[in-house]
Amino acid sequence: MAEIPYKIYLEENEMPQAWYNLRADMKNKPAPLLNPGTLKPMTFEDLTPVFCDDLVRQELDDTTPFFEIPDEIRSFYKMYRPSPLVHASFLEKALDTPAKIYYKFEGNNTSGSHKLNSAIAQAYYAKKQGLKGVTTETGAGQWGTALSMACSYFDLDCKVYMVKVSYEQKPFRREVMRTYGASVTPSPSENTQVGRKILEAHPGTTGSLGCAISEAVEVATSTPGYRYVLGSVLNQVLLHQSVIGLETKAALDKYGIHPDIIIGCAGGGSNLGGLIAPFMGQKLRGEDNYRFIAVEPASCPSLTRGRFAYDFCDTGMVCPLAKMYTLGSNFIPSANHAGGLRYHGMSSVLSQLYADGLMEAVSVEQTSVFEAAELFARVEGTLPAPESSHAIRTAIDEALKCKETGEEKTIVFGLTGTGYFDMTAYERFNDGKMTDTIPSDEELEASFATLPQVNL
Amino acid sequence: MAEIPYKIYLEENEMPQAWYNLRADMKNKPAPLLNPGTLKPMTFEDLTPVFCDDLVRQELDDTTPFFEIPDEIRSFYKMYRPSPLVHASFLEKALDTPAKIYYKFEGNNTSGSHKLNSAIAQAYYAKKQGLKGVTTETGAGQWGTALSMACSYFDLDCKVYMVKVSYEQKPFRREVMRTYGASVTPSPSENTQVGRKILEAHPGTTGSLGCAISEAVEVATSTPGYRYVLGSVLNQVLLHQSVIGLETKAALDKYGIHPDIIIGCAGGGSNLGGLIAPFMGQKLRGEDNYRFIAVEPASCPSLTRGRFAYDFCDTGMVCPLAKMYTLGSNFIPSANHAGGLRYHGMSSVLSQLYADGLMEAVSVEQTSVFEAAELFARVEGTLPAPESSHAIRTAIDEALKCKETGEEKTIVFGLTGTGYFDMTAYERFNDGKMTDTIPSDEELEASFATLPQVNL
Fold first, then answer.
1. Phi and psi (nearest 5°) for B129?
2. Which residue from B108, B179, B426 is facing A175, i.e. has the nearest CB?
3. Residue of A65, A230, B85, B260 with fewest CB within 10 Å of its CB?
């Protein structure tokens, strides 16, 4: 076996040829999406007015283990993939731990995160279907940026509804999207019925992700040649993101490294679901065993404190119902600088795995997350995204446990992105002004009370 | 020969073991720095109060062809090097050119540019000398960021004097530096004599690079255990940056690719000097031939419209005199979004090569630069820094000439960095509000009139 370099890069011809569909190996399949009107499972016909046909097929298919990655997408992947699996030797040294730490770094592309892996796939299928364009919403902007890049590549129109407060406070991400040719509209807007209604009721509102989703869906379903796309939570997104885990496994196998613990931050679940997919597949098939840890913010603890129940995917309650760990679709997490981890629910796939005891979850507070981020930036050289730093926090905690016990465990975590557009958060931390907020039991109970009737 | 991948990554063991000192192969050596008081060449003793001893040795040595890269620096380089040499096949396709285009991408690190290559070297020698810390100035912030990262790695104090207008308008880069533990002071400040003097004379001033240099030098020379460091122009910096060219040449050689034209943007010259070093060495030794093109902004055209003369390196006229192509140390370029290309002079090494007809130079206007940047971002996926985009502009122009003539030339250019902290510039471009400004002949003549007497 060759000596392990600091950064393990696969060769281009070692990149995955197919995405892996973890659902095919799950005995307890994730519960189907339900039509909010009929409470019956959503069908192909129900979903295709909103999503592209091929993506609906992927969404509904829980038996096919592999989906070939089309050549056009593999060609695009080569622009920024394979991503490196980095041996965090500087971090190990700083922690003085016997543990071995590796991280899969998905931030070395202009979107700054793993979101591009699914954005390019969704844009490809939209183009293949002959569509003119797609619509989406974005909060902090990672997903919108990734989708803009993907649409630019396939010459598709891209309409992004950006939560107004972010549109105004985060002009840099907005300009990246515009540079890639996307139209970026602050939400709520006058473009849609739902937007006008909200503006009439709340003239000074700065918007919400739920409202932006509703606007994007309305535009997609009312404009010929358009569909709506989403960057997380959905089965299809986890399928595309399996490229992260497949590359990670190939790189580890190449050097004979066996991970004991695999860690990822979890918002909607796209990164974690992708990272763990092939390893969880082995565990499900009884071929190997690993510990998996989902890390979520203490301010938005869907796995660790949520209910496993059918809930609305959006605050507007117009999307299908999904069975997932949820805090209730009306739950508003307190101010938190990890915008990508503020979703009230969790991917149905991950929710089922957690319910079945196949995966652990922890929640961490943001000041301790930024302490980990700062240490990581200083010793490993890369300034991490606040979201990714949740995984860093837990990887460090596990490595410090190894220091106490003397165990030489191998820890792999997902470094989903860089924090270059999150310096306002770092500024608060640098100034000692960052605070932690954890929802009270009463708040959560009140939010659970809004879960839909189908759970009764 | 193996098939050429989209991204050529050298193996870690193929990384350079030594920096290459191009001056050793130059028949006409760059003219020495002169002591502004005596007008005699600066000696080791003159320079060591300002710079570290080992760096002064490198600065003054124009005969030793190779300097071994210390293990500690090579270890740090592994964090973000080898950097990829990318085959810009998407750009070739978009241009429909028979030319082959490659770029060496130096932006995949948190400093966002090639500056880290010299920052880590300078921090290493400061640590080796037992210093407590270093001082520097920064304008746009790339160099300050790189130095902060390097100092954090070697546990050195880092005092950055940041031009006040940038400190206030570019808080994100400032926060990256603070996250790496640097102290960032808006210049002019009350910390120094020169700062207080300027504040007294011009109470509302937003500062200048020249003033920030003067403050940083004053603090370094008046504080025990400190030295001053600089990110461009100097011979030592070009020496360290030769790692760019050495890796580029190794990657090209590995796949049997022979470049016809090598292109880089030129501000102080650190990136271009590093990129071309080993190729220019071959040309000087008569072993091979290449075209080299330096690209500068039309608003700050030191090579294409400057004088080859001794001049002050700083506007405060306290630093040594360097013989270089210069617009005069009082020249203030008009507003331009490539902050790294606003220096009035050019490295003495590059100036001598240009004077000897070994290198060409062109100047380009910023709207055409941003048009190239936008095209590049859309087809190659990476949003480039405004500075780097000057090289992209000229690479595209050369590729389009090949399209006319049908020639299959191979073009290599340096992509020095990413534009993630330059979105204000992109916003102006996206809004159609970007303008071009070119200094008049009269302006330049007035500026040349301030050149020091030594030239008479």
1. -80, 0
2. B426
3. A65
CA distance A5 to chain B (A): 7
CA nearest to B154, candidates B224, B73, B219? B73
CA distance A87 to A396: 14
Q: Looking at residue B454, what DSSP letter applies?
A: G
In B40-156, the DSSP E strands lie at: 66-68, 85-87, 100-105, 133-138
Closest CA to A329 of A347, A356, A311, A304: A311
Length of chain A: 456
ipTM of predicted complex: 0.94
Q: Which residues pair with A321 in a beta bridge?
A: A34, A312
- In tens, the pLDDT along B57-100 reads 999 999 999 999 999 999 999 999 999 999 999 999 999 999 99
Evaluate if residue B348 carries a pLDDT over 70: yes
Q: Are A452 and A326 in contact (CB under 8 A)?
A: no
Structure tokens at B25: 């192969």
Chain B residues 372-411 with CB within 8 Å of chain A: 374, 377-383
The alpha carbon of B274 is separated from its chain's Cα centroid by a whole number of angstroms, namely: 9
Nearest C-alpha of chain A: how many angstroms from B161?
18
3-state secondary structure of A68: strand
Where does B126-260 show beta strands of DSSP type E?
A: 133-138, 157-163, 183-187, 226-228
From B102, B114, B150, select the one nearest B5 (Cα to Cα).
B102
* Enclosing H/E stretch for B19: strand B18-20
H helices, E strands: number in chain B: 18, 15
pTM, rounded to two decimals: 0.95
How many angstroms separate the CA atoms of B25 and A227, rounded? 62
- Whether B376 contacts B392, CB under 8 Å: yes
